[in-house]
Automatic annotation (TrEMBL):
InterPro entries: Lambda_DNA-bd_dom_sf. It comes from the Bacteria. This is Transcriptional regulator. It comes from Halomonas flagellata.
Amino acid sequence: MSSELTRRMREIREAETSGRHEFSQLVGINKKTLESLEQTGRAPKGELLEAVCSVWPKYTLWLMTGQVNEAGGQVSPEIEKARKTLKQTGTDTD
């Protein structure tokens, strides 16, 4: 069974980057290490989690706990995708 942290990190990667190569460059991890983490489901080390949170601070709460606080600016990739879709269709309220 894969680690929830690894699953959430992958969701961030899929929402915010074009793939493993770009994600790896942004967070400073070897692409092969990232592939191994995702394939085995091992939990990422603290340094990697910190790097992900530094690049995408809006996902920190969700990455670490699975919770969101939209009023505090803490969202999930799913919420962010919905926001982007609404902006593209012109149905957002901002």
